[in-house]
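Lab notebook: predicted structure, single chain.

Context: the supervisor wants predicted structures on file for every construct in the current expression panel, including those that have not yet been purified. This is the next one on the list. No modifications to the sequence; it matches the entry in the shared construct table.
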Amino acid sequence: MEHIKQYYKYIIIGAICVFTFVCFRYTLQNQFTCWDDDYYVTNDPYIKALTADNLKVIFTQDITKNNYHPLCMLSLAINYYFSGLNPSSYYGTNIVIHVLNTFLIFLLFTLLCARLKIPEKQSVFMAALGALWFGAHPMRVESVSWIAERKDVLYAFFYFGGLITWIRYTDSKEKKWYIVTLLLFVASCLSKPMAVVFPLSLICIDFLLARQWDKTVITNKLLFFVIALICGGGAYYTQNATGAIADFNRLTLGERVMYASYGFDMYISKFFNPTYLSTFYPYPYRYIDGTLPAIYYMAPFIAVLLPVATTLAVSRITSSASGDKPTSQTASATTGIPGSVQLPFAPQQYTLHKRVAIFGFVYLFANLVFVLQFISCGAAIMADRYSYVAYAGWIFMLVFFANMLLQRLPGFRLAIYILLFAFSGWMAWLCYDRTNAWHDSETLLTDAIEKYPMRALLSYKWLGNYYLDMGELDKALENYEVLTRLRSADAKVWDNVGNIQLRKHDPRAAVQSFTQSMGIQNNVYKTYLDRAIALNQLGDTLGARKDLEMAARLNPAIAAGAVPVPAAGGSPVTGSGNSPLDSCIVQLNQGDTLRAFRSFLLAVKKRPDAEKVLAELGFNYVNSSRQFAPAINLYNMLLKINTGEPHYYFYRGVAFYSTGNIPKAKEDWLIAVKMNATEVKQSASNNLSVIFDNEGNYEKALYYAEMAKSLGYNVDAAF
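Prediction complete. Output recorded below exactly as produced.
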């Protein structure tokens, strides 16, 4: 029993960490999604080989084209090194880091309570409840169950560690703790630029702990502010360059204040009522007269009244409490160095309870300030992931006052414990349930559409893309048509609609869709090639030739034969040029896949569509020129680049089968039928039924024949 008492804190936090892991365990079954996972993992060549060249690119370039976060990308590269494209490895890493962050919250709250001289048992209660609310809150799911948001859990790990070491520094004044805090801050910024508000969090900590409140509260953080300015400026430049930041004149100052206030209010609301969560929270629609819903006009007043009312209520409740006096009356040693200039809002003039209330609201605001749409960035007014670090100070305030109620109202302790237990259990259940929405692209995007029908427009587009990749043309068209009915200004949507119409043997409708796409963006060579196919099918050879000529002007590689032209049956990529992509093809034909892979990495820097070009070449090798040996070499390399593409396994299987290597063909098709692509599964299962029939394994032959038939393949009834 003595041993249990000695280690009870570790037992408690251990149990909370296990409970947190259980809340997220379903995430381990999730798949890659089409929401940035392709940019970060599946289609990113730089994480797929831990070479010196790739590491240099990771640390010197914005390889995801939206932010510079090299430590995040390095962690994903390490995942790929050990597990390839096994999604459970990436999700498992996210969960482990989140559990570690939950542990850090426990340590941080324990330290804060100790500095505030809160008795140990109360301190453990506050730290445990705070860690539980942090770890198992539904608003955490977006950060943990989304592979591309690795940056969130990773930057928080360094961020919370930095807050802990800062408290160590302010206690001891030892330079080593200052240096460690600085290094953790830099690591946090290199994981996600949102960490630039870290110096503001340090000021919040100093205020809460009633540190010396003179010019040193700023000067000892100058280096942090300089780093924050550099990282923040770089992030703003990158976001602006990619078009993520809207023109400042797009919204009036009043609208910015209303939207920011609404977002702030909603983050508070979602903590207590984390239902109806979504990956997408759209800006409001306006009424016919141009006005907004009433809640947006009320939002600024609510955002101001909430902290003011909370502070006043705390002041009133605690005014008669003995010992709860301003710090200047109880700890004069902390009021500053004699003769030093005191800054406004010195913490010593506030009671502990007021400081905690102010700390909770200011910390929350400081960590949300750059995502509250004062600067309009993105198509959503808020996002669950932005609360990940911001909720830490807010949770500390809540558990502090929960503990206060338990101490002030001993007669109601059982009722309070029951309420806290019920609220915690409800949040944990919602958290577990929310992880199901992130299972794959279909569940994720469908969830957003169900929450905001006709408003989550990007979700319609991405869901259409997903179904198109899966070969489910009718479902893809259904989602795209929502956008086309709204007269979408996205050229790619119209181009995809045209390609679906081509595949459904409706070239006339396809021509109209391609023409609509060109009306939005008329410099995409692929759209001209696509329309040339449709025109050729309609017998308009003159129009098709004009489109081919235009495509060649936009992309001279077509004229050189470096891009296959399916409409005219032109030559596939020959590898006769001197570009890295040509070198890659020559090396593949020679069987030198190692050098070909290196050439591919060089090619991607100049041609982001290099993988697609090679995939089209492989298709031509198998289906047109019947060059099976080069096709096998090509697909061997493509599967190093992207092991999640079912077509690569299928066509390599065709090439193996055509060269008489039946075991290898069977091996590839057995993988292909397990992947989520209907077209591939149809053909691969039929091919497997033939192989097993030839081997005399009639049970498996029948099994795969029935699978092919259930997927719509026309299986011979006699078979």
